[in-house]
Amino acid sequence: MGRNTENRWRTPRWSSSSLALLAALAALAVLQGVRAVPQQVPLGSHPCSRPCAPGRTMTCRYDFHVENYHSMSKACYSCPWNATDCARPDCIAADGASRALVVVNRMLPGPSLQVCLGDRLEVTVHNHMPEQSTSVHWHGLQQHGTPYMDGVPFVTQCPVQPHSAFRYSFRADNAGTHFWHSHTGCQRADGALGMLTVRVPKVEDPHGPLYDEDLPEHGILVWDWTHTPAASKFLAHHHAGDDNKADSVLINGKGAARRFPSPDGSPVLTPREVFTVTKGLRYRFRLINAGFLNCPLELSIDNHTLLVVASDGADVKPVRVDSLVSYAGERWDVVVEADQPVANYWLRMHGLLDCGPRRAHEAAVLRYAGADPNTEPAGPPPSYDVHSGTTGRTGLQVNPLNRGSADPNTITAAELQALPEATQLSDPALKPEADVQLFVSYDFYAVDNPHIHRAGLYGISQVPSSPHRVFTPQLNHISLSLPAFPLLPGRDRLDAPRTPTSPQLCNETSLAAQGRDCTKEYCECTHVVRVPLGGVLEIVLVDQGVRYDANHPFHLHGHAFRVVALERLGSSINVSEVQRLDAEGRIPRNLRDPPAKDTVTVPDGGYTVLRVHADNPGYWLFHCHIEFHVELGMALVVKVGEHEDMPPVPKGFPQCGDWSNNNWLGDADKDVDVDEVLDAALGDKPVVGNHIGRDLGALQGALTFGDKAGPPPAPLPSSTPRTTTSTTAATTAATTPTTTMQPRATEATEATEATDIAETMMSTPSYKEDSTEVADADDTTELLLVHGADGTLADDASRYGVLEEDAVDSTTEVASADEASATEAPTGARHVSEFIMRVSSSSRRVAQSEAVSVSHERWDISDPARPDLQYNVLETPSQAPRQVAALTASSPREARAPRDHAYALAGRGPVSWTPLVATLVCLVLAL
């Protein structure tokens, strides 16, 4: 007994074989620990970044960790004075300005996805931002069969909430130069973006003979850059009279705008991007314009020409030019021949329009192998005054700014030609007459937009014209306002009987039928245009050009379109003039070989005509790609096909919505009908408590106000079918759904339901209505009150929208949740609803004890970490045992699995402490 209680170390005696075994175990543990140390993975080293071979595809998995970060952080050490420090892991130097960022895997730009046509991409987006939701759009991928993966909040999905994750799973179904970016707020402008290239085998590329190399490091991702966060810039512009101009331009996240002092007085700059080529070879460069302001960018390379071979992923007949203008959202492929003497050459990016006042520009270096890396290129150094238009060359330019077909020195996007195989015979979009024609006019309008101006306080006519009078960009005088739930996966709610909280679907025709004149009042609603599946939609975009010499690039999700006409008519026009020209046959259309694109500009004071073969069912956003404009509603939604044509909602797909009307209690209409009855009966008397108390008291004749009893309610009014329709014009597809209100329940039924609600709520003693207080603060767990359609309760190993690792079969077309933890809602079941509350452990036990005896609607208390799971609130005796068993699960904090912080591309692997501890123990024992 004494020996067992001795508090001293004894030196063990070991045999040589035992020591050898321990040494081997220690070495193995060390190796395991080394593998867990974070490693920086070089760009392009992902296994899917490979030469593409016919018939060979892969499943490409990535982890995107989205977080708030900062440029010129402590990770940069002595950058830029020590240039190598600027390339340290986690150092984002950008253009030298210190500012807040939103980045993926602490990279700017984020991970570069280089895949082959037909590869499956599985990208798990982890949102580490504490206050912002996020999403990712795969710009250029059409998502045939996987519309839920398009990444547009409240159109195709719920946004990914803070501290949660969502896995995107889709096939790279159309080849070309694309990119990915956040589609939430201004996060794209703050750095949440990256390249996405889908290649085909070179032997299958019709342009394959035109180039020798197509390298991942020859992607050119450019965008306009501000030295303050984009959201702050947006708010300052619209509310405080600040401007909306860019400070600089970034090329692959690099620039040299800020000058740092040095001991000898010469400025020190952050590093510029460098592209390396070998003399005598031809290189395919892929240009992506990810801009967010009204800043077209003009590309030129000193002493070199550009052979344009593709745009937005679609091949065109090659055309050789001296410069190229790109607009936000566009991509262009050019072939550059390294046929000049071995040296360094400037690759210049010149900002136009709103980049002019701040003289925003940037340059990279085209470096021939063997050139001195310490020598700057010859010729004028980068400046805003030096670009292709002022270097003495008068060469050809493609995709010019605000030019039409009359300029002999330019080639508009509509004047490019598709390759012969993409002709009228192979594309239904090029048939002589479209099935649906839609005129979309836009400009900046002087309306009292309540988001910017408030009539009577600081209306647009009340504030000084400069700088506080801010005009609103709209499409057909309508601002898009999306509902609180995504249209595509929540389309059953659009089919449900309408309530005052239902989204107001509209278009120009339906608003006119309601007697609204949106040219005189501000109109905001869910602007939807309907196209039959397989039909051909012709969109005539008209830039009226009344205010500003602006330019708007438009992007269509889910489809490519044909650019069949583009022209500038003057400094300003109106839509009726364009309609008259069209009626007179004076708008010629190229229906033979027009180029295919998904993003196109419209000349100021001109028009662009698009043809779309609507073969991809779903809800698809069509919007201006200037971030400040789309945030104000310069967008609409194209509904392709009917709901039954759209792919089924993936099992367990995340849900979201607006719970302001207590829909989470299952009585969505009571706020309207019962409240109206009570208000009529009680006159102007104030109402105490929320509507649950009002239902109980009024319907049972016991509602009191102070010491006065409320009168009994008047009989509930009988409902009559209410139908909302819109007149469909010959040129516009109506979108407002026809719905009918269901008859209300009887008074007795209302009273019974209200009593059931009260009994359920009161069965939790420590629950305090609309309060976060609990009876025992030391024994509480934050839980989720859920009203849903599925009685299965699952573990919470993953969080909101997370699909477990390897849960997605590579043969499936959509991502699905773990079948052990989520089941599909039955047809016609109510949607998942949620409400955060706090209850004590004792309260949860009370709810468990009563679950077996209750057969009416009651509320399951479950985990807020999994609001994507569906739960059932309608308990029957046969369901009760399963519910009780489910509710006895451990608390969320006990069951929550540790988060995996593996950064697949940034190289931040999870560090396992077990082998390290084992190593230390073995070493100590060996000694």
UniProtKB/TrEMBL annotation:
State the UniProt keywords alphabetically.
Copper, Metal-binding, Oxidoreductase, Signal
Which residues, if any, are the signal sequence? 1-36
Q: Does the keyword Signal apply?
A: yes
Q: What are the record's GO terms for cellular component?
A: plasma membrane
What would be one Pfam family of this protein?
Cu-oxidase_2
SUPFAM superfamilies xrefs: Cupredoxins (SSF49503)
Q: Where is the Plastocyanin-like domain?
A: 94-201, 220-371, 503-642
Which InterPro entries does its entry note?
Answer: Cu-oxidase-like_N, Cu-oxidase_2nd, Cu-oxidase_C, Cu-oxidase_fam, Cu_oxidase_Cu_BS, Cupredoxin
Q: Name one GO biological process term.
A: iron ion transport
Please give one Gene Ontology molecular function term for this protein: copper ion binding
Q: Which family does it belong to?
A: Belongs to the multicopper oxidase family.
Name under which the protein is recorded: Laccase-5-like isoform X1
> What is the species listed in this Swiss-Prot or TrEMBL entry?
Thrips palmi
**Gene name of the encoded protein:** LOC117654085
